Amino acid sequence: NKLKTSLNKTRTNLIGGIDRVLTSFKKPDEEFFEEMEDVLLSADVGIKTTMELIDELRDHCKNNKILSADDIKDFFKKNLAEHFSSQNNELSVAEGGPTVILVCGVNGVGKTTTIGKLTNVLKADGKKVLLVAADTFRAAAIEQLKIWGERNKVDVISHQMGSDPSAVIFDGMQAAKSRKVDYVICDTAGRLHSKVNLMEELKKIKRVIQKEIPNGPHESLLVLDGTTGQNAIMQANAFKEATDLTGVVLTKLDGTAKGGIVIAINRELNIPIKYIGIGEQIDDLKPFNGSEFADALFD
Ligand code: GDP
């Protein structure tokens, strides 16, 4: 299965590491906990989440007098699956009008690609989709989105580079209503160097959307690059300050050994992971399912 294969490096690093520590497991002593801690940190589970997990593991060991290596592995798997399953990973859908999805994230994380893939998912489901190129900061971003529009055979609303993002959003919302689309997906610029600007721009964009489509945006998705490890958490916190996020899309999980970031995002951000990117192709976006993910990782 593709998910499992794409997680190979993370499996080797994280699960292989846990297995390695467990081969010589006799009793849960300090050395054992420290070794486990090192494994989690090396797979980018992050310091905060690692400490929490180790504390929970300590409790688990205290409460269970007879412990085997299998029990401990089971502890990790169950712990993961339970955490994940408490979140709502479905996309919200508008009643009646078009569903508006705002997509943000810093340059290079895979934002445009994700929009292209998501369009493909929605189209396969028989939905009519419109794209809006509101990242007017980079000419390449507009061009890229147009290419994904062609690939998916959907329209792209765009203005010239450097124009006001809210103006293209306004046009996009008008077009979404008049063309009666089911989904309108808006690309936005992700300039983190000026948090105030980012905040103001996103606020303005949301105001325009709300004025045209009540209750919109129905989803504000943040795209994060899984290969950047703890950096992704920092980006997420910055965007969380700037705007209300409804979900995360975690890209590039294929070929990274830092997949432990999924666990850190899940625990530290309190924003559900809605999709994961596991490749560069159009069909390499998967709805995130916690127990499926835990299975792919551990089994
Ligand atoms: P943007 O600047 O955030 O819009 O980023 P792009 O969508 O242009 O993507 C940047 C690069 O990451 C491109 O080369 C994409 O093909 C690649 N990419 C995006 N998502 C994935 C993914 O899930 N897996 C892999 N391996 N590459 C990805």
TrEMBL record:
Compartments, as annotated in UniProt: Cell membrane; Cytoplasm
SUPFAM superfamilies: Domain of the SRP/SRP receptor G-proteins (SSF47364), P-loop containing nucleoside triphosphate hydrolases (SSF52540)
Residues that coordinate or bind GTP: 105-112, 187-191, 251-254
GO BP annotations listed: SRP-dependent cotranslational protein targeting to membrane
Predominant localisation class: membrane
Keyword terms, alphabetized: Cell membrane, Cytoplasm, GTP-binding, Hydrolase, Membrane, Nucleotide-binding, Receptor
Membrane disposition: Peripheral membrane protein
Reaction catalysed by this enzyme: GTP + H2O = GDP + phosphate + H(+)
Main enzyme class: hydrolase
GO CC term, one of those recorded: plasma membrane
Gene3D superfamilies, per the entry: P-loop containing nucleotide triphosphate hydrolases (3.40.50.300), Signal recognition particle SRP54, nucleotide-binding domain (1.20.120.140)
Keyword Plastid part of the UniProt annotation: no
EC number: 3.6.5.4
Domain SRP54-type proteins GTP-binding intervals: 272-285
Gene Ontology terms, MF aspect: GTP binding; GTPase activity; signal recognition particle binding
Function: Involved in targeting and insertion of nascent membrane proteins into the cytoplasmic membrane. Acts as a receptor for the complex formed by the signal recognition particle (SRP) and the ribosome-nascent chain (RNC).
Classification via PANTHER family: SIGNAL RECOGNITION PARTICLE RECEPTOR SUBUNIT ALPHA
Family: Belongs to the GTP-binding SRP family. FtsY subfamily.
Description of how the protein assembles with itself and partners: Part of the signal recognition particle protein translocation system, which is composed of SRP and FtsY.
Protein name (record): Signal recognition particle receptor FtsY
Species of the source: Alkalicella caledoniensis
Gene designation: ftsY
